[in-house]
Every structure is written in C-alpha cells, then in structure tokens.
Amino acid sequence: MKNNYKVNSxxxxxxxxxxxxxxxxxxxxxxxxxxxxxxxLTEGSGYGWLNYLSNQIGGRLSGSIQAQQAxxxxxAQLDSLGVDKVWLQPVMVPKxxxxxxxxxxxxxxxxxxxxxxxxxxxxxxxxxSTGVKAKVIEVEGIEQLAELGKEEIxxxxxxxxxxxxxxxxxxxxxxxxxxxxxxxxxxEASKYGALxxxxxxxxxxxxxxxxxGSMSYGDQTVSERIPAAAISTNAAELLxxxxxxxxxxxxxxxxxxxxxxxxxxxxxxxEIRGTTKPEEVIVVGxxxxxxxxxxxxxxxxAGCVQSMEVLNLFKKTGYKPKRTVRVVLFMNEENGLxxxxxxxxxxxxxxEKHIFAxxxxxxxxxxxxxxxxxxxxxxxxxLEWKSLFEPYLVHYFVKGFSGADIGPLKKxxxxxxxxxxxxxxxxxxxxxxxxxxxxxxxxxxxxxxxSMASLIYLVDKYGF
Length: 464
Prior knowledge:
Elements: H1 2-43, H2 46-57, H3 65-80, E1 85-97, E2 103-109, E3 112-115, E4 118-120, E5 132-139, H4 143-153, E6 157-160, H5 171-176, H6 180-190, E7 196-200, E8 228-231, H7 233-245, E9 250-254, E10 258-272, E11 277-287, H8 297-317, E12 323-330, H9 338-349, E13 353-359, E14 367-373, H10 376-383, H11 386-389, E15 396-399, E16 415-421, H12 426-429, H13 442-462
Parallel strand pairs: 5-6, 6-7, 7-8, 11-12, 11-13, 13-16, 14-15
Antiparallel strand pairs: 1-10, 2-3, 2-9, 4-8, 5-9, 10-12, 14-16
C-alpha cells in the first residue's frame, strides 16, 4: 500500500508539472503572438515599403527596368533591417514587352463600330501591323472547339466567353475552373485555323478593365502562333449580346507585343540565422514581379512586403529564432516561375534542410487563415495552434494549395502553407490596371503580416 502511494504521488506530480508546462507554454505563445500583432499594427513598415514599390517603381514585369529597380530597393530595405545575411540569387527570366496600347472594336455594319477595352495576354505574339479583322465565333470553353470543328472556326476570331462561377464562395476555385481558356485557348484554337482569340477577363465583377495573364503556345513554332488578348467583362457581355442579334459581326484588334531573348534577373533573399538549429530553414515569400497594367500592389507587392515584415517583426519584438528564417522575394512567377524553380534547384544542390515554407500570393486583404500541404500527422500538429489565432479572427486552417513559388520545394516531410486572405474582391484587381496601391488597406495588410509572423514563430518554436 505504501509503495502504491509513492507511485501514485509521483504520477500526480508528473501530471501537475506537465499540465503546468503546457499552460505556461500556451500563455507564453499568446503573449508573443499578441506582441507580434501589436507591433505590426503600430510599428510595421510593410505599408510604406509597398507605397514605394507601387508608386515610385510601378508595374514590375520580368526583365523590365522596373523589376530591376524593385530588386535593388527590396535588397536595400532588407539590408537596413540588420538581419544576418542578404543576397541576390541570379536567374534567367523571359522578357516580353507589351508595346504601344492595344486597340479593338466590333463592326455591326460598314463604318458603324463600337470600341472595346482590350489588352494582350502575356506572351502573345503581335497581330500583323494592320491588325486582324474577321468574323467572330463565340465558345464557352476549349472543349467546344472540337464540337464546332475546322469548318466553323477557320478564318475567324474565337471568342472564349466562359465566366467565373459566381456561386462559388472560393473565388480561386472559380478562377481555376475557367482559366484554361486564357492559358491554352490560342494554342487550341489555332489547330482549327483561327486567326486569333479574345478571352473574357477572369473577373467576377462587370467592369471595363481587361485582365491580362500568362498564356502558352506549348511547342508550337512561331509561324503557328496566333495573337491572343483579353477583353473586359462589360465588353464580353456586350459582344455576346450583339452576336446573338447578328452573328455576322466583324471584330478588329491590333497589338504590338514582342518576345525578346531571356535576360538575367534575381531572387532577393534575406535571413535571420537560427540560434540552436541553424541548419533547419523556414522560408517565407512572395513574388516580386508583376504584370504591367497596374502597379502590382495586391499581386504580389503585398506578399513581398508581408514576407519582409516577418523578419522586421522578429527584430522589433526581440524574438531570436532557433531555426534559420529566410525571406525569398521570387522573380518571374507571373510568366514562367523561373525564380521558384531556381531557388529550389540551388537549395537541393546545397542539400539544405527546409522544414517549412509559407507563401503570400492572394492579395493584401483581411487574413482569414492558412492552407497547408502536409502529412496528416503534421496537419494535426498545426491544428493545435489554431486557437491561438482565433482572437484575431484568423481561423481557416485547412488542407489545400500553398503557393506556386514554393511548390518546387515540395518533398516528403516538408510542410508548405499559403496565407489565405478574404478573396471576394481579389479578382476585381487581379492582373488589371486597377491593381494599385489605393486599393490596399494598411490595417488589413499588416494583419496579414502579423499572421504570417505568428505562424512562423510557432513553427520555429515547436518544429515538425
């Protein structure tokens, strides 16, 4: 009986100590996370960095002077934070230039025309110098091309008019379900003898902003390629209605874009070296390049400055990570993913041990949570941290896509994550002229940065 009493006493003491440790640990985490959020909202630098990127530099198309200016600026800002190391990682990127502004109209009778808001898709070839004018055939997706066949399509301009599904709450799913017409529409339509393609912009809102974006000709020769452009959602609605009234409408468009040889650019990288496990690397990043119509504030200037802010918040709050925390501003996500592939290639060649990577590339709107690509075991560990974010209304923790630039790092045992802000307004601005600084709310931007820093703090403290 006496021995049993001793055993039970030891067990009781063990559980008291264990629960006390867990309680103290969670309390410490709450304090540190609150400190991160408070500092982000009162002393953060991200909004100022974004102001400069957007209003002093502007759109940062891969291979452009503005892209190089953004490299120089962000490197200087990371240097100013006093982190352990900042460097540039060379990467060859495509150089596509839009040229003079595009022009388009449709003609209902000789001399009676209606101008249309249009922009070339990124990577498209130019029209002939006099433009392209032809009858229009409207389709709701690539699969409809085969149904119509060469006889119906040859010599015409194909009008892809599949809208984003407004009933989907996840706007990224709505985007994914129709973006193939933009990416591969020209390649597929050319097989049936089309002279060019115009695509309804990937936008849930009806407005007059055409949205550009990447497209691909696959392995087609230059002579096989046809020009591709996007028209605004209002223009798509008008053209579709007009075609129902008169299927013999002519459409005209002219664009002067050109593809040059690849040029050298850079990923911008900075890190705080870990104090006890420096060989384990945690990455946080966004892509520094953008399209050229707006200034790329939401896509993805926001993600870049939020990632930089993570290091800034650690320095300001005095947190010294155990593991190496590295920010990577990737070049060329929009039209090639060269930066993400180069970073993974170099990391693998050096046999670096990455344990976690977090990307922000969904705009600078109010953060709602994170998506994770991980094993079930690691995801269960992540879910244990969810309650720490609930006071900040950041409670969307699900498995799902993380990010394009960190995707090439994917391997067994590595956890990938993506910041998920509220996405309802994102596609109002995505790849369009109105993706500009005034559409970013400072408080929302800083809340996103604090959420990222808090998650990285927990990964650093507890690992996987």
